[in-house]
Amino acid sequence: MSVADPHRVVLTGENPFLRLSEKDGDPNSTDASYWRILFCPAGPGHVLYLKSELTHGHWRIYSDNIAMARWLQQTVQGMLNPELKDLSIPVIDADFSKAGDPRYFWTEYVSAADAEIALTWHDIGDPLLIHTEPNQEPNPRPYGVCTVLVPALSGRLTLNGQQARGKPWPREREGRPFSTSALAFSESWTEAR
């Protein structure tokens, strides 16, 4: 029996996310999907997809590789959030850096001409290793994923020094403690050959 995944790897990298709301169960007041891509057909790079009351409820996209940001919109990110399939959303040039120790806290920084953004995850929980196949039931998606999800019970996002409202909320995933916000490391997405 082969230990190699039989599917085509389309990307590998990281995809931490923050989903904040003021009350548990309310729609997200902030939805942030951050990608650090090591390998994909459009090359390596970083991208932040951000929608918040701080962006007046509109999506903003910050990246250092516009081709990669657009490729993600047309593939994995567009599948995860269909609003982001809209290629008319401008991509803003940005620089990216990080700090922290993922056992305790993690911060991703985004610096653009009009924005200084910091995304921070803390109150870190036990990691889960998740592995799904493309088109796997009961909720088939065209892509499979293998990732280490690290729940964060606390988190915040600031844009030009102003903190977004809301916070992460506890959840359960696969019978284990989880959160509406998490670090996602060692993440690889696949498609059927």
Task: Give a short overview.
This protein is mostly beta strands and 193 residues long. Helices cover 7% and strands 54% of the residues.
Draw up the topology in text.
Layout: E1 8-14, E2 17-20, E3 30-39, E4 45-52, E5 60-63, H1 66-74, H2 76-80, E6 91-101, E7 105-112, E8 115-124, E9 128-132, E10 143-159, E11 162-163, E12 170-173, E13 176-179, E14 182-191
Parallel strand pairs: 5-6
Antiparallel strand pairs: 1-3, 1-14, 2-3, 3-4, 4-5, 6-7, 7-8, 8-10, 9-10, 10-11, 10-14, 12-13
Task: Describe this structure as you would to a colleague.
- The protein is mostly beta strands.
- Helix content is 7%, strand content 54%.
- The chain is built from two helices and 14 strands; from the N terminus they run E-E-E-E-E-H-H-E-E-E-E-E-E-E-E-E.
- Strand 6 and strand 7 (105-112) form a beta hairpin.
- The longest helix has 9 residues, at 66-74.
- It is globular and about 55 Å long.
- The chain starts with 7 loop residues before the first strand and ends with a strand.
Highlighted features:
14 strands; 193 residues; mainly beta; two-stranded antiparallel sheet
Shape: globular
Uncertain runs with pLDDT below 50, 5 residues or more?
none
Q: Which range does the strand content fall in?
A: over 45%
Encode the helix/strand succession as letters: EEEEEHHEEEEEEEEE
What Rg, in angstroms, do the CA atoms define? Answer: 16 Å
Biggest beta sheet summary: 9 strands, mixed, barrel
Count of individual beta strands: 14
* SS-based class: mainly beta
Helix content range of the residues, please? under 10%
Rounded mean pLDDT is: 97
Identify the strand order in the major beta sheet.
Answer: 1-3-4-5-6-7-8-10-14
Oligomer: single chain
What is the tally of helical segments? 2
Distance between the termini: 18 Å
